[in-house]
Write a structure and sequence with these properties.
Elements: E1 2-9, H1 13-26, E2 33-36, E3 57-58, H2 62-68, H3 73-82, H4 85-94, E4 99-101, E5 106-109, H5 114-127, E6 131-133, E7 138-144, E8 148-153, E9 158-166, H6 182-186, E10 194-199, E11 203-205, E12 218-227, E13 232-241, E14 245-247, H7 249-252, E15 263-267, H8 272-282, H9 288-291, H10 299-308, H11 322-333, E16 335-342, E17 350-354, E18 373-375, H12 389-407
Parallel strand pairs: 1-2, 1-9, 2-6, 9-18
Antiparallel strand pairs: 3-5, 4-5, 7-8, 8-9, 10-17, 11-14, 11-16, 12-13, 12-15, 13-14, 15-16
Helix pairs in contact: 1-5, 1-12, 2-3, 3-12, 4-5, 8-11
Length: 408
């Protein structure tokens, strides 16, 4: 039976980072790192990120970066301080992958090719002495004499190791190998995981045919309330209108909290009532659409919003009654849309769910339940915003897990 000091299961960004850091930490000492990848190549899902361009991190200052992680910031800060975006970009640069930051802070490879990021990570893993075994699909796991692990492979072979790092990702884009099956064998090691659900996905809306003509229109910093039968919450962010509903960071970043039947109440304009009365005084002869040019709503969208609510928009502002202005203000302050479908795990960019964070030591990524077992990346139950945060934190948690597996 083949034995390795450390086995990493899953060759995505978290697994590659864990392998590199473990390999480097073992340098000059006895020990070996074996990376098991179920596909014929590493990082198959990574190749799809950012439509193949790979927004791998974000150039925000460290405190702003952590703030964007939301409720997960306090938990993930140890991993990020240990291996931040500068460490990541330097790792890529050293392997020949140059990067650049867009004005919005998103970091991309200079080539705009996700394959260059993947290839750089693989190159660094090989340089660190890591052995990568491809087409290596795990069937189940078990403890070995209370001091290590037995890994049963689908082909019938067995492996053993002293330390085990699981970086199999979530359950989105299962055709890439990120299918969530790892939760079945983490259960045998004592971990009761939360079921995976879609994250970073779009929503379709009921009775949205009026808005198809507005597909492609995006608006910055839109406020919305998401209302469900049990819970409601408010969020803000950029919104993109699609042929079937909504997308953009406002939707993507909150996707894991959305369900069919929930209402999205969009605040198209702030202080709508006051601004409408002011427009009536300033532009009495203009029609509604042209008089409201100061609102942060494209004319095409404004016209469509009014059309969808059966409101007349051709008449001049001076002909509007107080009641009509109040009605218009109500629509612009809170238009209601009902979710008919949340993007599925098959096509959502990420997933939420997995191993509860309370079961993983934030300072080492080691299991609090099973000694010598470590987790990193999307298999952990956190949901991060779009903009490069997911890949960065997969790498950051992976790096910390790899180092910790050698040193603890």
């Amino acid at each position: 039976m083949k034995h390795a000091s450390i086995v990493v299961i899953g060759g995505g960004p978290a697994g590659l980072a864990a392998s590199i850091s473990a390999g480097r930490a073992l340098a000059g000492n006895k020990g070996s790192v074996l990376l098991l990848e179920g596909n014929q190549e590493c990082g198959k899902k990574l190749l799809l990120s950012g439509s193949g361009q790979c927004n791998f991190s974000n150039n925000l200052p460290i405190l702003e970066f952590l703030y964007r992680l939301g409720k997960n910031a306090n938990y993930l800060k140890s991993a990020y301080y240990n291996f931040d975006k500068d460490a990541f970009t330097n790792l890529l640069t050293d392997a020949g992958c140059q990067s650049y930051a867009r004005p919005d802070g998103k970091l991309f490879p200079l080539s705009m090719k996700a394959s260059d990021v993947r290839d750089a990570l693989v190159k660094q893993a090989v340089s660190a002495g890591v052995t990568i075994l491809y087409n290596a699909r795990v069937y189940d796991l078990g403890k070995h004499n209370q001091t290590g692990f037995i890994i049963n492979m689908e082909n019938g072979s067995k492996l053993s190791c002293d330390k085990l790092i699981i970086t199999t990702g979530g359950a989105s884009y299962p055709q890439t190998g990120s299918d969530g099956k790892a939760l079945s064998y983490t259960k045998s090691l004592g971990h009761e995981a939360t079921a995976f659900r879609p994250h970073l996905g779009n929503v379709n809306l009921q009775e949205f045919s009026f808005y198809k003509k507005c597909a492609g229109i995006s608006l910055p910093n839109v406020q919305a309330t998401f209302a469900g039968k049990e819970k409601s919450f408010t969020a803000s962010g950029d919104l993109l209108i699609t042929h079937k509903g909504f997308s953009g960071p406002l939707i993507l970043d909150n996707c894991h909290r959305l369900k069919r039947g929930m209402e999205i109440i969009i605040r198209w304009a702030q202080d709508a009532e006051t601004r409408l009365f002011e427009a009536q005084k300033k532009y009495p002869k203009m029609d509604i659409i042209n008089a409201l040019w100061e609102l942060p709503i494209p004319k095409k969208l404004l016209k469509t919003i009014l059309e969808a609510r059966g409101l007349e928009f051709h008449q001049s502002m001076k002909r509007l009654t107080e009641f009509e202005i109040l009605l218009l203000a109500t629509v612009l302050s809170g238009s209601h849309y009902t979710i008919s479908r949340v993007e599925s795990l098959d096509t959502a960019m990420a997933s939420a769910g997995g191993i509860p964070l309370a079961e993983i030591n934030a300072k080492t990524m080691q299991s609090r339940i099973c000694p010598d077992l470590y987790f990193a990346g999307e298999i952990m139950d956190y949901a991060l915003p779009s903009g490069g945060f997911n890949i960065q934190m997969a790498v950051s948690t992976g790096w910390l897990a790899g180092e910790s597996a050698v040193r603890t």
